Amino acid sequence: MKLCTFDEGAGRLTGVIEGDSILPLRGTVDMLDLIQRGAGSTSAAPALPLHSVRLLAPIVPKRNVFCVGWNYAAHFAEGKAFRPADAVQEIPDHPALFTKNPFAIIGPEAAIRHPAPISDQLDYEVELAVVIGRAGRDIREADALDHVFGYTIANDVSVRDVQRTWHGGQWFKGKNFDTHLPLGPWIVTADEIPDPQSLRITTRVNGATKQDSNTKQMVFPVAQVIAELSAGLTLHPGDVIMTGTPDGVGMGRTPPEWLKPGDVVELEIERIGVLRNHIERGA
Ligand code: MG
Question: Residue 12 C-alpha to ligand 1 middle, in angstroms?
C-alpha cells in the first residue's frame, strides 16, 4: 500500500494512492495516527485525482530523524580525499550516526533553499528512509524488520564546507539548513518491500544520472541499523531512519558539482517512486 499526506486546498489529509487516484482517509488525524492505529483500520472517502492535490512530506516525526553517516563503501571512498589526516580513515565497525531536525523537512516538488551567501557547496544524497511502526528497545537484528512500518525516499541535502570544516567538523549544522530534508513522495508499506536490500537507488540532476547503486551495497543493512540504534534507546512508531547514500554525490565528482538555483533533483528508489525537488535562492 502507498500512503501519502496531501493538501487538496482545505488542509492536510492522509490517503492511499491507487494508480492515478488518492483515496482520502478522512477519519485519521495524520500519518502518525494512522501508523499507531494500523493502516487497514480506517474507511476511505471518494477518490481524488492525484494531479489535483499537492503532496506533502508523508510524515513529519515528533523528534529528529536518525541518519547513518557512511553506509556504502564507494561513498566513503569518494570522500576520503576530503578528510583530514586525523579523521576516520576506514568505515567504522558500527554505523556513524547523526540527526536531522524535523523542521528541515519539505515535501515533493517543494524548493530546496540555496545557502548563498553562507556557502555555494550545496549537495544531494539519495537515501532509503525507514519508518518505524512498532516500538522497541534492544531489538534483535533477526526481529528488526518486524518493527518497520514502511519505506520512503529522503534527500540528505548537505552544505559541504559547513559539514566538513565548520563547527569542529561535526555533521549536524551542515545537514540542518531549512528545507534540507526533502521526504517522500509517499510511504510504501513494508509488506510490499520484504527485502529492503535489493532496491536500485539513483539520483538525476537536470535529467543526468549522478548516483546509481543498489541497497545491497549497504555496509550496515537496515536490520543491523535498527538493532544498533535501538540498543538502549527506544524507537517509537513514526520514527524515521535514513540509511546513508551511495557514491556519486557532487563533492566526489571531478571537478566537484554543486547544486545551483534552478536545478531539478530527482531521487528514485525501485518499488517506491521518484522524489523531485528544485533549488531556489532565498526559498
Ligand atoms: Mg547522508
Answer: 28
CATH 2.30.30 domain range(s) in the chain: 2-56
Nearest partner of 100 among 166, 155, 181, 169, judged by Cα: 181
The CA 174 to ligand 1 mean position distance, Å, reads 11
Whole-model pTM: value is: 0.95
Q: Which three cell numbers stand for residue 46?
A: 471518494
Q: pLDDT for 29-76, tens place per residue?
A: 799 999 988 765 566 678 999 999 999 999 999 999 999 998 998 887
Question: Which CATH class for the 65-281 domain?
Answer: alpha beta
Ligand 1 mean position, distance from CA 4 (Å): 23
Question: What phi, psi does 184 have (nearest 5°)?
Answer: 145, -160
Ligand 1 centroid, distance to 58 Cα (angstroms): 19
- The domain defined by 2-56 folds into SH3 type barrels. (2.30.30)
Whether the Cβ atoms of residue 226 and residue 147 lie closer than 8 Å to each other? yes
Helix (H) or strand (E) holding 139: none
